[in-house]
Amino acid sequence: MTNIAVINDVWEGDWETLGTGQDTKYIKWLWRDGESDSYAALIKFPEGWKGHLTTPARCARTWYVLEGGWEMQDGTQYEKGAFYHGPPGTDHGAVVTSPQGCIVISMMNAPA
């Protein structure tokens, strides 16, 4: 079965809060498949957000930085326009967002 999603303006609508305290971030779901856990979403990390990101063992994750940026534990920096793809099971380690925060489009692909 094909799930087609069309959104004419991804910036419209409300952000959903994920996490609490220091782990708080915001998400705007663009597409979700509840059976496989695959999704596409905008994720907004507040300025100076610190956390640990891991891709589940059965999923591949792709990010494209739309605004701001972040730095990985190994010192690699991803700024506006950067593209990243992590294969299933990737441990991204600790992440710190830039002083202005970060908005990414995140896509998680899992086998059905």
What does this structure look like?
The protein has 112 residues and is mainly β. The chain has a single domain (23-109), classed as Jelly Rolls. Helices cover 0% and strands 57% of the residues. The protein has strands at 16-18, 25-33, 38-45, 50-54, 60-72, 77-79, 83-86, 91-109. Strands 1, 2, 3, 4, 5, 6, 7 and 8 form an eight-stranded antiparallel beta sheet that branches. A hairpin with a 4-residue loop joins strand 5 and strand 6 (77-79). The N and C termini lie close together (11 Å). The mean pLDDT is 85.
Fold topology:
Layout: E1 16-18, E2 25-33, E3 38-45, E4 50-54, E5 60-72, E6 77-79, E7 83-86, E8 91-109
Antiparallel strand pairs: 1-2, 2-3, 3-8, 4-8, 5-6, 5-7, 5-8
Q: At the fourth CATH level, what is the homologous superfamily? A: Jelly Rolls
- Work out the radius of gyration: 14 Å
| Outline type | globular
What do we call the CATH topology?
Jelly Rolls
In percent terms, what proportion of residues is strand?
A: over 45%
Query: What is the succession of H and E elements?
Result: EEEEEEEE
Structural class: mainly beta
Distance between the termini: 11 Å
Q: How large is the count of helical segments?
A: 0
Number of strands: 8
Describe the largest sheet: 8 strands, antiparallel
Mean pLDDT over the full residue set: 85
Q: Please tell me the total number of domains.
A: 1
Low-pLDDT segments, ≥5 res: none
Which CATH architecture?
A: Sandwich
Q: Specify the CATH class.
A: Mainly Beta
